[in-house]
Design brief:
By secondary structure, the chain is an alpha/beta fold. It is 17% helix and 34% strand.
Length: 127
């Protein structure tokens, strides 16, 4: 069997500029590559620590209606070294989700309704 390495996650967004601003302000993710095709723009975001994980935002140039997210069973997760300051930032941004917080973990919601789990650094999930 060939070897595989996880490369990126993709989210389809309605308003690319709004999403770029959210991910930079809420999580420090910045654009490092942009692919502009006839129908779509793909923007790749990374964190300042140069994690191997990359977030791809896909924007359809013709879409005008929000995506239907169903039961929102998909989510992203980020680890923070300062859970208190992180929560204060996200409270100011008014993006904390009403999803219940457990064991110091809380959730934020991006402009398109995607859930993002915020974990304290000391909860290392076995890594």
């Amino acid at each position: 069997m060939p070897n595989f390495k996880f490369d990126h996650g993709n989210l389809s967004v309605l308003d690319l500029n709004r999403s770029l601003k959210f991910y930079e302000n809420a999580l420090g993710l910045t654009e490092f590559v942009r692919l502009d095709t006839p129908n779509y723009i793909f923007v790749y975001l990374g964190d300042p620590y140069k994690s191997d994980y990359v977030l791809e935002l896909q924007w359809s140039k013709t879409r005008t209606e929000p995506y239907k997210l169903g039961e929102k069973k998909y989510h992203l997760a980020f680890i923070t070294d300062d859970i208190k300051a992180s929560r204060e930032l996200h409270q100011k941004m008014n993006c904390i989700s009403d999803k219940p917080s457990i064991a110091g973990i809380y959730w934020i919601e991006d402009p398109d309704g995607f859930l993002i789990e915020i974990l304290p650094q000391d909860l290392n999930m076995g890594r």
